[in-house]
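Margin note from the TA: students keep mixing up input and output lines. Inputs are the sequences; the output is the structure of the whole complex. Example:
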Amino acid sequence: MCASTVCPRSCKRPRRAMPELRPMPASPERMVVAFARVLRRRGLDVPVGATVTLAEALARVGVDRRDRVYWACRATLVRRPEDIDAFDEAFDAFWLGHVRAGSQVVVPVPVTLAHDAPDPDPGADPGTDAEEPDAARVTVRWSRAEVLRHRDFAAYTAEEFAEARRLIADLRLAGALRRSRRVRKGRRRRGRPDLRRTVRRALRTSGEPISRAFVEPSQRPRRVVLLCDVSGSMEPYARALVRFLHAAVVGGARVEAFALGTRLTRLTRELSSRDADAAMASAARRVLDWSGGTRLGEGLRAFNDQWGQRGMARGAVVVILSDGWDRGDPELLAVQMGRLQRVAHRVVWVNPLKATPGYAPLAQGMAAALPYVDEFVEGHSLASLETLAEVISR
Amino acid sequence: MVHPVEIESVDDVVAGLAAHEYLADEGLATAVFLAMTLRRPLLLEGEAGVGKTEVAKALARWTGGELLRLQCYEGIDASQAVYEWDYSRQLLHLRAVEAGGREVVEDELYSERFLVRRPLLRAIDYRGDVPPVLLVDEVDRADDEFEAFLLEILSDFAITIPELGTFSARVPPLTVLTSNRTRDVHDALKRRCLYHWIAHPDFERELAILRVRAPKVPEQLAEQVASAVSVLRALDLYKPPGVAETIDWAEALAALNRDLLDESAIDVTLGTILKYREDQERVREHGLPAIVQAAAARHA
């Protein structure tokens, strides 16, 4: 993965030599509408207005050259660089009749969990290489006994979880306040003069500015960025925490949510549906590495490169929800935490294991990250999530 | 005649921009062509330093329209973006009128005489024959409230000032919005716009850009710089160098009277192209000789 992953490969890749377009049957409008339908089926958001624009665009650039048609379609129908790959495939399939192998449906790759740990329990290995030679093998490290003893969220029965879901949905997150550059009417007679209102008032007193008005800076909540570890070792907490992410995204205006596993997945869009179950379903489809391994360092690196450094984390409250078990290089994690802390307002680390009596942050990843953490809190129960909301707004 | 430049095809755009020192690829040229002919705003996204803002500047030079730049920032509002009244002159006027013993009439205070025009109003109520080029730079830095407001203006290119009435553009200005993607621009705004993602240029285009933008740099050095930059971009850096940095680097080397890229030349000028200490360390670890070789290999 190169550092500029926001830009998908496809936009750097020189377009292949352009073969002739299939002759256009029927009217161009029909083709445009049909093409938009194909794109929508692939998950692109194509508003009706865009197809009208495309029809106009094709009338201008003509349909005799393939690259012209391609770029006209792209300029009118694509709005996010992430969509370019899907668009390219759909374009080839629709206009040229080419289908790239295996590109139709995104099927989650089966993942085999395995231990590298000194944990002697052989029953914990749900599959072996012999059975599924082609499946990706992801190694996680956890202490089964530890997780079982402190199930907290995970120990809920189905009914308890249904109840907790409602309570989690009621949680609201608001970042700490900061001074904004916007101003509002000041009540006190100090600060910057508000000339607009002063002139208005002067009209009342025949041009004499007797009554003066003032403005004062307003306050805005900081952006909150939630990074939730969805690896195997976090599994007992993930379903509750992702619900928490959903409540936060829906409830707060400036909340961003990501899933951290073996890769980084942005979930803000998926979780912004008010319908919690629909949001969970689309988040589940988006995250391909639920309960896989953890590479916190690489995940944070991806976040810093693609989002954090360029502005999302600047001045924000960044919350990492993870148990700190990391398969990657602790050195890398420390470097990335340092980068994050330098741009963020505050870094909060939420570790569900912290509630365990006698817990010490011995996991390599946790130990490496701790020097860069401003607040280290629990996250194993509803009460601790409420505390977290309080910490974030502080 | 509305546009002094006649454009009939995408090739005209490529040629027109090239004549004003901007080398656009087919994709960008098509997007610009459509923005000009369909009169729709163009939203450009891409890594920092790939030349998003430069597009608008080149368009202004080419079409001869005035470049009106609105730099967005958090908290920007209508008084900085659209219009403001000149309050101090209003107050002075009030005093003068009063001293003359006349009654103050509100209408004369809120007339065009006291109107301060900001970029959006100037773009819509332009006086010349050529529509101006409106550059709304780094729109992702503004907040949601301003975006909603911008959406309204870009939809019908009209602005209403309660005291004066509605101003609307005879011909919509050529509008370019840029975003660095620090956050997602709202879908409704994107829907109004044509969209293009500007990627880093490939070797050939970058070299061509260097020839145009840094003509004092010797040809061989330019080639080596362009290929060294493509090596650097593949190194997984925090901030891969953009075109702006490439030009800076080539000019820095030329200013130091280097006509070849060697280890010592890279060593002393690394700061012009890589702005993170970690990136510089990474490149030094990778080895400066390796970069020199890669650059030379492409040339050979």
